[in-house]
From TrEMBL:
Ranges for domain TerD: 5-172
Name of the protein described by the UniProt record: Tellurium resistance
Biased composition (Pro residues): 182-218
Region Disordered: start-end pairs: 175-219
Amino acid sequence: MGASMTMQKGTNVAVPARSVRVELGWRSSPGAPDVDASALLLVSGKVRDDADFVFYNQPEHRSGAVRHEGKRTGSGGVTDTLVVDFGRMEGSVDRVVVAASADGGTFGRVTGLYVRVLDQAGGAEIARFESADATVETAFILGELYLRQGAWKFRAVGQGYDTGLEGLATDFGISVDEPQRSAPPRPAPSAPQPRVAPRPAPAASAPQPPAPPAPPARPVRLTKVTLTKEAPSVSLTKQGGTTGTLRVNLNWEVRKQFKGWGAKLGRAVAVHADLDLDLCALYELTDGRKGVVQALGNAFGALDRPPYIHLDGDDRTGAVSTGENLTVNLDHRERLRRVLIFVTIYEGARSFADLHATVTLQPQNGAAIDFSLDECTVPSTVCALALITNNGTGELMVQREARYLVPQRGVSPQRTIDAAYGWGMNWTPGRK
């Protein structure tokens, strides 16, 4: 479906694919708010529980049917992507609402907002809806995938909220963790009087104690933690983010054109040369073992055994990738003493100058943590991103490093970062 087939509000189209990518896109501009995609899995118009909300702090549904893939910067704008696999959808789910929320402003300041549905298998565009009439809204339902007579369809909605992601989520039955706001107590419902034949009054007895209240469901946390030079660290323990997995994502754009080849935004192949950045991790376990997880030498690691860190396969094309991703298994956090996340330039550039990079650490439980790298003004080919430490008392800390290092002549980036952080490993040349 081409641009001429852009949908009007309220119209619908059939979705014949088994799995689709739902892409929210907008043009980035100075002063405009950031936009986040989210999805709600509904049964008869409501979520079954808070797990039916898929967004940046809860990026994958337990069924695997919906997952949030995250942002990337491309030529002309930014996209945030969800993947919906109808083959894994639970039978009771009959609707998936596709929503957008603005972080730091209203949608009236966001230009070029659209949603489009792509066949995951072939990449063909199935549906596209452009939203152009926003004003004071801070959240939007852009569209919905819904089941009708056994077949999935997509409807363009375009309904706005001025109460943000919180208002939208609570509208569908999500309980949101907003401690500064307390709901007024609800009056207890009066018990219905059963209709029974009159019986003699029994002897007086002590009143029965009331049943203990059911424990409240753990509410969804919408907050994000942004680390800065002034506030560079956060406790994963205090955030409640020390179980399950921790997904580390590095995404970037090239701000200027490198000499000799046309630079593209995002992690993309240039016309004449590859720009290949590698996300890596140095680790030290509590038993003293040390090592590196990296694409070089195919040292991709593992989640179910030491080092409990795994690197996604290295993809230099950037065509489908959302940057570089690395996962840490926090269920084995007591085995980890420290983990240093860093990035190296494998080829395609001589330094990080003109690369604008964003680092996101997404705990399976707890708030997302993100930060941007400062502008690089030195001939650096290796940058320390974040240091995760277990201080021995069970508290897991994340420290923003954002530290550019300049290797000495003949010294590898890995040796350079090892020396800067005192890892004390022996290095041999490797390739990928």
